[in-house]
Amino acid sequence: MQLIAEEVLRGLLPAEVIAALEDFGAERVGAILIRGLPLPDRLPPTPVFTGVVDDGDLALLDLTTLGLLSIARIRPVAYRYENHGRIFRNVLALEHARGQKSSQGDAELAPHADNFRGNFEHEVIGAPRSLMPKVLAFQGVRNEDENGNAVPTNLLPVAAILDRLDAATCAALQKEEFTLKPVASNLGLERNSVALLSATVPARAPHRYLRYNGTSGQIVPETAGAKLALEALDRAVIAAAKEHTIPVNVGAGDFFAFGNYVNLHSRPAFVPSPYPERARWLRRIFGTQNLDAGAFVDRERAPFLLE
After folding, report:
1. What is the SS3 string spanning 254-297?
2. Residue-wise pLDDT tens digits, 240-249
3. How confident is the model at residue 55 (pLDDT cuts 50, 70, 90)?
4. Which domain holds residue 107?
């Protein structure tokens, strides 16, 4: 189905858009934003009470997302412990999750990488383990707060953070001396003795990859050296965010994808619209470029579902 969607889109999209998607897939750029893609004629209200919707109502939207990712050679993945194993997650403010730090809450989300407890793709080849998604993509359904303003997704390039770290700190961050705690929105287990910075620069990558979550308590240093390195990293993230944060308003019909290893993202706190027909609603999907990476629940029956 994804390949069929790709074939259709290749016949409809301008050559420059296809080239931009291919550049994104090759890591020549860290993010891509495409505006004004088609939406279904009739969209359901934002599911603020349940968080779920009949996926058939969003088939056009979802197939467009899958086709765009396919052009970039990105395959969708989901996680057994998160979002009930579904590929698409509805990013919105649930009525019963007000004040929560979650993609389905409305509190501020500090700069972070999603599912950051997993391994980078190049680390798990031949040794199936938990996989950190390489790509996040959002498709906009609607995006309004209480006052009708868009709620931005803020992007922070990892390069701007690494530029503020000295060699000794980077070396300390490459040591497997950190414990990573699961976030509020999933049921995963904590992971011990993990490095925050990749030991190598993978082929095609612009720099080392980073796993990070700026929410207090998500990363616990296991040694005195790790504690100092984490404190330096926290300061670098705060300083870089002041100068290099890129706010992206993902509106209706917009597609926004970025590298989860080379960017952190965040969201300000907001007051949700009281009207479900206007309330913020994005569709999120994780992606990988290596289906041999990671531990799958059942490759035969659910080839997209990771442990």
Report:
1. CEEEEECCCEEEEECCCCECCCCCCECEEEEEEEECCCCCCCEE
2. 999 999 999 9
3. confident
4. 2-288
Tokens of 121: 């793709």
User: Does residue 105 lie within any of the structural domains?
Assistant: yes
List all residues 6 or more positions away from 194 whose beta carbon is below 8 Å from its beta carbon.
117, 176, 178, 179, 180, 211
Here the CATH number for the domain that contains residue 58 is 3.60.130.10
From the list 305, 307, 251, the residue with the least C-alpha distance to 77 is 305
> Is the residue at 166 inside a domain?
yes
Question: How far apart are the C-alpha atoms of 252 and 250, rounded to whole Å?
Answer: 7
54 burial (CB, 10 Å; 0-12 / 13-18 / 19+) is exposed
* pLDDT surpasses 70 at 125: no
Q: What is the pTM of this model?
A: 0.95
